[in-house]
Amino acid sequence: MTYDLEAVRAQFPALALSDNGTRRIYFDNPAGTQVPKVVADAVSNCLLTTNANGGGYFASSRAADAVVQSARDAMADFLNAPSSDEIVFGQNMTTITLHLSRSLGRLFKPGDEIILSRMDHDANVWPWVMLARDLQLEVRWLSFNRETFEFDLDDLDKLITEKTKLVCVGGASNLTGTINDVRAICRKARAAGAFSFVDGVQSAPHIATDVSDIGCDFFVCSSYKFFGPHQGILWGRREVLERLEPYKVRPAPSSIPGCFETGTQSHEGIAGITATVDYFAAIGASMGEVLCRGESADETVRRDQVRAAMKLLFAYEEQLARHLIEGLQSIDGVTVQGITAPDAMNRRVPTVSFTHVNAKPAAVAERLARENIFVWSGHNYAVEVAQSLGLFDSGGVVRVGPVHYNSITEIDELLAILPGILGA
Ligand SMILES: Cc1ncc(COP(=O)(O)O)c(C=O)c1O
Predict the structure, then answer these.
(1) pLDDT tens digits for 298-327?
(2) Any idea which fold 41-278 has?
(3) pLDDT tens column, 161-178
(4) Is residue 201 a contact partner of residue 174, using CB atoms and an 8 Å limit?
(5) Is the C or the N end of the chain the one with fewer CB within 10 Å?
(6) Taking CB atoms and a 6 Å cutoff, what residues make up the pocket around ligand 1?
């Protein structure tokens, strides 16, 4: 199992770009990743050869339908979903969540309770708060420990009652980087007879997702966060999806998954999803430790390859995170707002946010941009997280988000420049 960084980087044309002769360093990945050429080719090929609306009798329409079906198959492998007709496409995670919340709300009545987390991006918070307002539901909040940056699941036990109908939680935080134990959380929700809705936008790029193992009812993610095009993807448990009344127009399909797909989809984006999953599979096949080679009846070869790739890439990302965090902690006045213990890198994704005793996050991001180092600053839509950490009014954090195509050398460049910027 050997990770070949240069072979991977060579697949991403954007990594070779420079501006006025200065190389680019992309640490803005939690907000959106670059794409390998195979993904861009798939998008382009779809537009150039299969550009039609679906459901027709003619060749290009049938090809467009095949493009969508291939992407459902690919995502079923990526998420280890039992069936590809449980895969729903949409514009992005936020749109899908807002849309689905309306259907789910039809199963709730005033006085019912929903549990939201203070670790989540607002896309897994505010759609539900608005639903609660509309339906007079009670919102109960799962907080995280400000020192460990993790949930204490005993707190969840105290929040769950016989009125709990829904538990919403993120796979990984887009601000602290913490990986949440969604499996345990969804089990508790299920035991209480509640639905569970997992926002996997920040976990899907880093760890192998297995919705069957997690035991959730819904899992949402966005392929532009994992090296694909701008698309949102929902997996829903069949029996739950079939219970819901979709918000749709009359001529639209009445069966899953099409009944949840509003209007005409971006076929070109969906074509890119297949190529994205195949990109991971190719890494797994060539560099990873493919275990059962699809011999299990439940698992395809591609699923096995994807899992092998994620394992390999996560091990590499752990090194990046450790190096970055150690470097940041050695700079005077810097506080890493997340898990830092060197032996705990498996409990976080490599998204590392920090604050400085004097420097404003936006000013740091702007200075790094001048060096062509791309980072984000602010609350990054993690409103509850920033408020919980007392950082909302002080400008949030500087967020450095390496992924598997970044190098230790790039991190060292950042670490060499930062002390000067921070005045440390
Ligand atoms: C954890 C998390 N959830 C949800 C979203 C929203 O995703 P989308 O842009 O696909 O709506 C983001 C985007 O940054 C995110 O980081």
Answers:
(1) 678 999 999 999 999 999 999 999 999 999
(2) Aspartate Aminotransferase; domain 2 (3.40.640)
(3) 999 999 999 999 999 999
(4) yes
(5) N
(6) 31, 92-94, 121, 123-124, 170, 174, 199, 201-202, 222, 232, 381
